[in-house]
Amino acid sequence: MEIKHKDDGSKGSFYIEVDSRKAGETTYVWAGPDKIIIDHTEVSEVLKGKNAGKQLVNKAVEFAREKNIKILPLCPFAAALFRKTPDYKDVLA
Questions:
Q1: How many angstroms separate the Cα of 66 from the Cα of each of 11, 21, 61, 89?
Q2: Nearest C-alpha neighbor of 4 from the set 60, 46, 47, 68
Q3: Is the pTM of this model over 0.70?
């Protein structure tokens, strides 16, 4: 499952396309130069049961580590995943 990334400098997203259409997406906004806020995660029925949501949030965590930034997970799904995943603590704002 290929996860794509776009960022315009003020907001961005990690997303999965199926048949050239977005089937899953985690969106974020920049909160200064060293923090992003994950504000929404959505996965369509096409990807249900494939851990797509977790993979999208994990990609955001990888991005944060690469950029040496923190994440504030306001999206309920991402926040729950951060609570359940001790490995994410290093990027938690």
A1: 17, 27, 9, 15
A2: 60
A3: yes
- Could you tell me the fold of the domain covering 4-91? Aminopeptidase (3.40.630)
Question: How many angstroms separate the CA atoms of 12 and 19, rounded?
Answer: 21
Q: What single-letter DSSP state applies at residue 9?
A: S
Return the domain boundaries, the chain: 4-91
pLDDT tens digits for range 45-69: 999 999 999 999 999 999 999 999 9
CA separation for the pair 80, 66 (Å, rounded): 23
Rounded (5°) CA angle 18-61-70: 135
